[in-house]
Amino acid sequence: MATILAVDDSASMRQMVTFTLKGAGHDVVEACDGKEALDKAKGQQFDLVISDVNMPVMDGITLIKELRALSEYKFTPLLMLTTESGDDKKAQGKTAGATGWIVKPFNPDQLLATIKKVL
Amino acid sequence: MSIDMTQFLVTFYEESFEGLEIMESELLNLDVGAADAETINTIFRAAHSIKGGSGTFGLNAVASFTHVMETLLDEMRDGKRDVTQEGVEILLSSVDVLREMLQSLRDDLPLNHDAISVAQEQLDNLLNGSANNEREQVNTVTDSYEQGTGSNISETGCWKIYFNPNRDMYKTGNDAVRIIRELEELGEIEVRVDTSSLPGLDDIESEDSYLSWEIILKSDTSETDIREVFAWVEDECDLIISPYSGDVGDTKKSSENKPELNVAVLEKSFDALAPQAEALAARFYESLFSNHPEVKPLFKNTTPEKQQAKLLAALKLVVGSLKNPEALVKSLTEMGARHQAYGAVAEHYDVVASTLISTMKELAGDLWTSEVNTAWQDALGIIAGIMLDAYQPVVASGQQSQSTTPKASTPTKQPANTNKPATESRKASGSGETSIRVSIDKVDELINTVGELVITQAMLGQFGELEELDNSHLDTLRDGLSQLERNTRELQESVMRIRMLPISFAFQRFPRLVHDLSSQLGKKVELKMSGEQTELDKTVMEKIGDPLVHLVRNSMDHGIESPEKRIAAGKSEMGLVHLDAYHQGGNIVIEITDDGGGLNTEKILAKARSSGLVSADDNLTEDQVHDLIFQPGFSTADQVSDVSGRGVGMDVVRRNIRSLGGTVDVKSKEGDGSTFRIRLPLTLAILDGQLIRVGTEIYIIPLVSIIESVQVHKDKVNVISGRGEVYKLRDDYIPIVRLYHAFGLTADSTVLDKGLLVVVEAEGHKVALFVDELLAQQQVVIKSLETNYKKVEGLSGATILGDGTVALILDVVGLYELSKKVTTHPGLNLSSSGSSEDGDIEEIEVEEGKLDIQATNESSSNEDSGGEAVA
Predict the structure, then answer these.
(1) C-alpha distances out from residue B611 to B343, B608, B636, Å
(2) Is B845 exposed, middle or buried (0-12, 13-18, 19+ CB in 10 A)?
(3) C-alpha to C-alpha distance for B819 and B723, rounded to whole angstroms
(4) What ipTM score was computed for the predicted complex, to two decimals?
(5) Does B780 touch chain A (CB under 8 A)?
(6) N-term to C-term CA, chain A
(7) For residue A21, what is the nearest residue in chain B, using CA coordinates?
């Protein structure tokens, strides 16, 4: 099973993502913003990073750009959580190096189906 | 997997309320006209999170309401919309509405639809300016995304997919093999790999992609579902999906849309232009943007290089598949849907076609014959027609794409599932369930302490197994017991700390309150807050909110003067209200200071005399006069105002604070302002108590209120006519309350110099309690008398002592009030008991409250003797 970094500034979203992924047998580490996520990703190799876009301190797009620049994360799947109307965010995310996205609102089954694609 | 989403709702509500607080305070910080981008971003983020969460957890009303707020904020953030005072006010009232919505949902109450639609209308009106079109467009994008692109089914039950990843597709973490495996889940596949682009071993870049694939998929799935598999790499590959006839043979050709194309001419002319392809692309955009600047916004999400590459790829694709009309129509249909999402409309196609033709003409020179020109004009017209046909009509959002295979329908089924738990959840959380967020440090500390407790238990547990105890064990036992005591204390402290929250939770609402009141009262007031990190018990925090609001309102309404008056008095126009919190000896102190006019001593005194609160010959100190404002029914306001004259007086504030075991007093200087000081216990559950004995009864005095204990010197006791006994302690005369007298007990001694006086203070008043003996100090758990019996004057609660007996906790403020009543009671002459041993209770007209106390005491002592006091 995979080790996943879940990044979101909303505690309830983190809670749901973590609960779902752990339920599927994955190890999950949480971070509240891009900065914290980047620090954690540098200290430990994750198999997958799932990140919200709008966050304080460091947003998800910057996080993805920074992660992609690290040699350990060159090919790691990096997914972003974005709202349905976030087409420009998707484009920005792709430019930054995101693998794909999960459209909010989503439910646990959709989340699991999506991460199955990249793990 | 089915997960109950309701479990996340508690957290969601909590963070949403926090988000609303942030929105409110940041909106108040916003400088109209010169708004700080980061401030707007913070507000936007809070709205965005609430929207995201409410959508996920099925609170659709909240999601759609926040969507409008979010759009508005997004425009402000991007500088498309000015931050106006009107906008801020509307957003502030939307915050209120949203808060109410969330509260109703949490408590399972009906939504206030009137308020919601009024606010929604205000927001819509505000949006309906120039930026309205933008919003429509967002919806369009959403819909076309959800609708997918042409969801036809291959009539042959077979698809041909051409998939050619760009060189750097792997650098986004995508994997062609993964995508092909996913296709395999849709049906049986046949894969042919094209390795022709693979360079020699020396030139190969290990991280690049050189392969392309042709995949035959046997599946009656829709094209939308196939396309979904490629959604993430859409821009990083060439992709052609077409129904495949192949071996199946007799498929009728879908030729209705078959373009009439002069294939040979088109191919030939395009080949001729091929060497100049890049120049063509660059020149095309150059002249497009200079001649038609209105199309520029359509390209806002892309770079010129990327766009030029796209154009060439598209042209190559079109020209390359001229001989395969079905594939051509397919790819044009897809392109059309994409262009709808980009916001391209019919006029744009004409513009692009004419620019493209003129650019090609320019580069081709003499080769551009009229035949070529006509061929391209026709071709581009047909292409535009097909692409525009692919546009989806705009429908209400929320419609899901059609799916035909059970596998693929999984995602679309979900929304129905999410709705159900959400409704149930409202019921679950409607029972007033509350939670607190605790920092992990506090929990770790707790776990650590419990760990130590387990060790202590193991140590003491050994003694249970011993046959008999001898002296050698005694030391270990003692150690163990003292360790247990320490553990218990630490455990208690850690648990208490979990309930502690920074007082900023209670302070948060004041910036808004002061903002609103300032404009309402026409006063200029600055709010200063300090000590917001001071921690306070959650229950105390919740209950102190209303008194604080009342005091701040009072300061703004009656304290701070109008700007004109302030200038006349030589003060700055801007008044100041300062909220401060700090710890002081096991208490938390909250001060509300204003630099207003202060209390008018004469006015208060006159009012008090006219209403009979004080007699004309009473000589009161300034502090005593000020304290009169806490008397019931006391108001000096000439006019009852909207703001604080709501029929709730300062007496209610004092009563509420007292019910929390706290005190409130006021210091004021006329002309300079007033300070209200609230003193609260850190927690309501436990207090540090001093055990005292009167006769056979044990009482508890809260340690915080004790100033000192003194042996009585008889010559310092004076009797003041009509006011009872006082004790001269240094320069103070302190009234003496004989507890045995007040509670109707038989004391060891009624002679003052044979007992002790415990000097206590409450709300600035000192009282000396006459007791027989001081016993131990200990922490006691407070049990409410009101819930278990009834409210008794002079007592604040009861507790159970270590030996199981019940002891009553003295309410010092109440005792002071009681002492005044008793001493001023006609027919009572406490002074007579100062020198003689009488202390007759019969002489006293016993009040109801005191009778109750007797009854309580009797019953508790009866229980004591029965040894079953612990309920």
Answers:
(1) 76, 5, 12
(2) exposed
(3) 9
(4) 0.89
(5) no
(6) 9
(7) B1
Q: For residues B731 and B729, give the distance between their C-alpha atoms in angstroms, rounded to a whole number.
A: 6
Q: If DSSP codes are grouped into helix, strand and coil, which group holds residue B444?
A: helix
Amino acid at B432: G
Give the residue among B285, B385, B388 at the shortest CA–CA distance from B345.
Answer: B388
- The runs of H, that is alpha helices, within B83-131 are 85-106, 113-127
Listed in sequence order, the residues at least 6 apart from B546 whose beta carbon sits closer than 8 Å to its beta carbon are B656
Residue ranges of the domains in chain B?
A: 5-130, 149-252, 261-394, 440-498, 502-681, 686-866
The pTM score is: 0.50
Beta carbons of B172 and A94 less than 8 Å apart = yes
**Chain A, nearest residue to B67 by Cα:** A85
Say how far apart CA B625 and CA B646 lie, in whole Å: 23
How many angstroms away from the CA of B792 is the closest CA of chain A? 46
The answer to whether B663 and B589 are in contact (CB under 8 A) is no
> H-helix or E-strand containing B457?
helix B440-465
Residues 6+ apart with CB under 8 A from B128: none
Q: How many CB atoms lie within 10 A of CB B713?
A: 12
Number of other CB atoms surrounding residue B57 within 10 Å: 27
Q: What's domain B149-252's superfamily in CATH?
A: ACT domain (3.30.70.260)
B509 to B25, B300, B504, B572, B788: CA distances (angstroms): 8, 41, 9, 25, 35
Architecture of domain B686-866: Roll (2.30)
| Tokens matching residue B777 | 């100090």
Q: Do B53 and A12 touch (CB under 8 A)?
A: yes
State yes or no: cis peptide before B297, omega within 30 of 0. no
| Superfamily of structural domain B261-394 | Globins (1.10.490.10)
Position B454: which residue type? V
The residue behind tokens 């979900």 is B414
CA distance B229 to B178: 10
Is the distance from CB of B770 to CB of B736 less than 8 angstroms?
yes
Q: Please enumerate in sequence order all residues whose Cβ is within 8 A of that of A119, keeping only pairs 6 or more positions apart, or say none.
A: A2, A47, A48, A77
Judge whether B437 is closer than 8 Å to chain A, CB to CB: yes
How far apart are the C-alpha atoms of B726 and B735, rounded to whole Å? Answer: 4
pLDDT tens per residue across span B165-200: 888 888 888 888 888 888 888 888 888 888 888 887
pLDDT tens figures, A32-84: 999 999 999 999 999 999 999 988 889 899 999 999 999 889 889 999 988 76
B141 contact residues in A (CB cutoff 8 A): 85, 87
Q: What fold is seen in the domain B5-130?
A: Four Helix Bundle (Hemerythrin (Met), subunit A) (1.20.120)
DSSP assigned state of B365: G
CA of A13: which chain B residue's CA is closest?
Answer: B53
Tokens of B804: 């199981």
Closest CB to B414 among A11, A97, A107: A107
